[in-house]
Design a protein that fits this description.
This protein is of the alpha/beta class. The chain folds into two domains: 141 residues, Rossmann fold; 245 residues, Nucleotidyltransferase, domain 5. Helix content is 29%, strand content 19%. The strands form five sheets. A nine-stranded mixed sheet has the order 1-16-17-18-15-14-11-12-13, with helices on both faces. Strands 7-5-8-9 form a four-stranded parallel sheet, with helices on both faces. Strands 3-2-10 form a three-stranded antiparallel sheet, with no helix packed on it. α2 crosses α3, α3 packs across α10 and α7 crosses α8. It is globular and about 65 Å long. The chain starts with 6 loop residues before the first strand and ends in a 6-residue tail after the last helix.
C-alpha cells in the first residue's frame, strides 16, 4: 500500500433534447435518470416488427409490449410507430435452429416488404428494426444477429421475456436508448462541446477506438478479430460506426488497420463535410511489452492511411493512447469524505503521480461508480502525442466522454470509443461461432470466401526421388460482411 495524491474531476453537464422539460443534467456519483427528459436526436422507426421465441408469450402480451415500448420511445423523443408493420410473429424454441431461423426471418422480411410497399405506394422502404423476445439466453443469439445483419440487412433488439412481462418504465427506457442508437439517433451529448472544452479541438477531430479479441483458450487455430470504430459527427462525438476484420491466430497487432482507417475516414468526411485535422486513437488490449511494436507498425499504418487518402501534404496531428484494464492497481480512499456508500473511490478520481511512469504520459482514472466489489481504475498510457495535450485537457476529455455512452444513463469505466470497438469485435466473434466455430481450413479447400495468409515453406529431402514436401498454409476464415445500411448505424450496441 502506498499513499498517493489524487484529484477529483467534476462531472460534465449533459444536454438532452429541447422537447423535454429538463434539457441539462449534472450527474451525481456517475449516474442520472431520464425523468422529464428526451434524447438529443431521436431516430425514426416507421416500420418495425416483433418476433417471440417464448411459448408463454402470447399475442395479447405481444400487442401490449408493442404499445408500451412505442409509447416509451415517443415519450423520449424517438418517433416510433405504435403498431408493427406485420402481426407479432410467434415461434417455438426448437425453431431457433439455424436453417429454420433463417427461413422464418426471411419470411418476416418478405411479408414486411410487401406490406410496406402497399402502404407507401411503391416507395423504396424496408423493415428498419426487428425486436426479438427470448425466454432465456440462447446460443442461437449469434445466428440471429448474423442472419439479420449480414444477410438480410436489419438491425435487431433482443430482450428477455421475464423483463418484458414486468413492463417497467426503466427497462423500456433502456431498450429505447439502444433502439435509438441502432436507428441513427443520438441519446445524449455534452453541454460544452469539444471545441469549447479544449483548444486542441479548434479543428475537426476524428476519434478512433480499436480492439482485438482472441479465440477462447481451447481454440488453437481460430482467427483473432480486430475492430476499429470512429465518430462520424462533429463538433460532438456521439455517433460511431465500426469496421471489423479477421486476422492471424492470436495476433495482437491490427494487420488491416490502414484499410479500416481509410474507410472510416471517408465516412467521417462524407457525414461531416469536413476533413479531420486532429486524430485521437484509443487502443485497447495492448500490454506494455507490445508498446514498441504498436508504435512501429500501427502508428505508421495510421499515417500511411492519411497519406493515401489525403496526399503527402495531408498530415493530421495524431494522439495515440493505450487503454488498459487488466492490471493489479487498486485505489482506496484515505478518508470518509472521498468514498461512496460501497467504500469505493468516487467517479472522477485521477492519479498521475507516484505510481505512474516517471517520464512518460500516463494516468489512472476511475470514471465510473463501483456497483459491486472494488472499483478498478483504467490506466491510460499515451504513446504518441502530436497535439501537445496537457494532463488536464486529456484527462478531462476522457472523463467527459465516459458520460456519453449510448446504452445507459451511467458513466462507464472505459472511454466509449474503446468500449464500442470491444462490442464490435465481440459481435463479429458471434458471427464466426454461429457458423460452426472459428476453426480454420487448409489451403486447397476450394472455398472462395477464404483469404489466405502466406507462410514460409521449408524443403526437405523425401524418399528415393529426392522430392520436397511443403507444409500447408492455414487460412483465415473471412468474416461475413455486414450489410451497408447496418454498417451506417451503431448496430453493435
Amino acid at each position: 500500500m502506498t499513499l498517493v495524491n489524487a484529484r477529483l474531476l467534476p462531472p460534465p453537464r449533459l444536454r438532452y433534447g429541447d422537447q423535454g422539460k429538463i434539457t441539462e443534467i449534472t450527474p451525481k456519483l456517475g449516474a442520472w435518470n431520464l425523468l422529464n427528459s428526451c434524447v438529443v436526436e431521436g431516430g425514426s422507426v416507421a416500420y418495425w416488427g416483433l418476433i417471440s421465441f417464448d411459448q408463454d408469450f402470447d399475442r395479447y402480451m405481444a400487442n401490449d409490449f408493442v404499445l408500451n415500448l412505442s409509447r416509451r420511445c415517443n415519450e423520449l423523443g424517438i418517433r416510433m410507430a405504435e403498431q408493427t408493420i406485420i402481426r407479432p410473429f410467434l415461434c417455438k424454441w426448437e425453431d431457433l435452429e439455424s436453417p429454420k431461423l433463417e427461413k422464418y426471418l426471411r419470411l418476416i422480411h418478405e411479408q414486411a416488404s410487401e406490406a410496406i410497399h402497399n402502404i407507401s405506394g411503391g416507395q423504396r422502404s424496408q423493415l428498419q428494426l426487428l425486436v426479438c423476445v427470448m425466454a432465456d439466453k440462447h446460443p442461437a443469439y449469434g445466428d440471429l444477429k448474423r442472419i439479420c445483419e449480414t444477410q438480410i440487412g436489419i438491425v435487431t433488439q433482443c430482450c428477455l421475456s421475464k423483463h418484458v412481462k414486468q413492463r417497467r418504465s426503466q427497462y423500456l427506457a433502456n431498450l429505447a436508448l439502444k433502439v435509438n442508437a441502432k436507428v441513427g439517433g443520438r441519446n445524449v451529448t455534452l453541454a460544452v462541446e469539444l471545441p469549447r472544452m479544449c483548444s486542441v479541438f479548434d479543428k475537426p477531430t476524428i476519434i478512433f477506438g480499436a480492439d482485438v479479441t482472441h479465440p477462447s483458450p481451447g481454440d488453437d487455430a481460430g482467427p483473432s478479430i480486430a475492430a476499429v470504430v470512429a465518430n462520424v459527427d462533429w463538433p460532438s462525438a456521439n455517433k460511431y460506426i465500426a469496421r471489423v476484420r479477421a486476422q492471424a491466430h492470436r495476433e495482437e497487432i491490427i494487420e488491416n488497420l490502414q484499410e479500416m482507417v481509410e474507410e472510416l475516414w471517408h465516412e467521417f468526411c462524407e457525414k461531416t463535410e469536413s476533413r479531420p485535422e486532429r486524430v485521437i486513437m484509443f487502443r485497447d488490449g495492448v500490454s506494455e511489452g507490445q508498446f514498441d511494436e504498436v508504435l512501429q507498425r500501427e502508428v505508421v499504418a495510421l499515417k500511411d492511411a492519411f497519406e493515401k487518402v489525403g496526399g503527402r501534404d495531408y498530415k493530421p496531428l495524431i494522439t495515440w493512447a493505450v487503454v488498459q484494464k487488466r492490471h493489479h492497481t487498486r485505489l482506496f480512499p484515505a478518508d470518509a469524505e472521498h468514498k461512496d456508500k460501497n467504500n469505493n473511490i468516487l467517479p472522477g478520481t485521477v492519479v498521475d503521480s507516484t505510481i505512474t511512469h516517471p517520464r512518460e504520459f500516463d494516468f489512472f482514472l476511475c470514471s465510473h461508480a463501483g456497483i459491486q466489489g472494488t472499483s478498478r481504475p483504467t490506466h491510460y498510457h499515451v504513446l504518441w502525442d502530436e497535439n501537445d495535450f496537457n494532463s488536464d485537457d486529456l484527462q478531462g476529455l476522457v472523463y467527459n466522454l465516459c458520460y456519453t455512452y449510448a446504452r445507459c444513463t451511467r458513466s462507464v469505466s472505459v472511454v466509449p470509443p474503446a468500449y464500442y470497438a470491444h462490442l464490435a469485435a465481440y459481435r463479429a466473434r458471434l458471427y464466426l461461432d454461429s457458423l460452426g466455430g472459428s476453426d480454420t481450413s487448409m489451403r486447397g479447400s476450394g472455398s472462395d470466401s477464404l483469404s489466405f495468409r502466406g507462410m514460409r515453406f521449408g524443403s526437405s529431402s523425401g524418399g528415393a526421388g529426392g522430392g520436397s514436401s511443403r507444409a500447408s498454409a492455414p487460412t483465415i476464415r473471412a468474416l461475413p460482411r455486414v450489410q451497408r445500411n447496418v454498417q451506417e448505424v451503431m448496430y453493435f450496441c
